[in-house]
Write a structure and sequence with these properties.
Layout lengths: L1 H4 L1 H13 L2 H5 L4 H6 L6 H24 L3 H24 L10 H21 L1
Amino acid sequence: MFIADHIRTVLLVSGIFTLLPIVVFLLPTRGPRLLFGVDAPDGAGGLLTRHWSLLAPSLGALLIYAAWHPELRAPLMLAAGIEKAGLVGLIVADWKKPHTAGMRPIVIIDLVIVSAYAIYLFQLL
């Protein structure tokens, strides 16, 4: 019940964390280095990176919105949890490669968030 009692805070904190990739969208040449310690990709990779860096913060904004709209919590938490679990899987799959070194903290943070979401969602069943 701890998570359910503090779900608004969980959504606010996880939403703010999920907003961070907006830095990559706003600063496409420096953002990847600032957040992840990697150089910005060129061409299609750069375009897709900027798209992702707009999509993830959109979920973050919706999570923050859901803090005050209980009817939206479950579907938004499920969608964000799937996205976060997928990102964790991708980073773990490339764990030993140099490009994931700056992304490893995301694994811990997103695993905590996904776990909190799962506990909350299972309590709704």
